[in-house]
Design a protein that fits this description.
Blueprint: H1 2-8, E1 17-18, H2 20-27, H3 31-39, E2 46-48, E3 52-56, H4 57-73, H5 92-122
Antiparallel strand pairs: 1-3, 2-3
Helix pairs in contact: 2-3
Amino acid sequence: MNVENKKEHPNPEEKNLLDVRQAAELLDVSEKEVWRLVHEHKVPTHNIAGAFVRFRTSDIEVLKNRWRIERELFPKKERYFPHQSIVAEPDRMEKLRDFWHFNDFYIICSVVILGLIYIIISFQ
């Protein structure tokens, strides 16, 4: 009977089980994010004594690989550089300078054409 109990309740080290902190470190996310994944049933969990949530290392590795594949094959289109903490959002003057830099030829040509049209119409 003791042998059966050991098979039903294996030692956590034997199954390579991780706690929430270790899973968060392996996935490179916060513990709060791991709990969100658990509540959304995106990662399989194992309960020990009905109170402790554990994860198999292989399940976490599969999830990490799936995330990597999704990031590489289907990157999210972002409006700005993704690291907004490093690069500040441009102010109005900087946007105006960029607009002039890339469109100066068209703006000057439009002004010259409008001036010529005005001269042609005014001399008739």
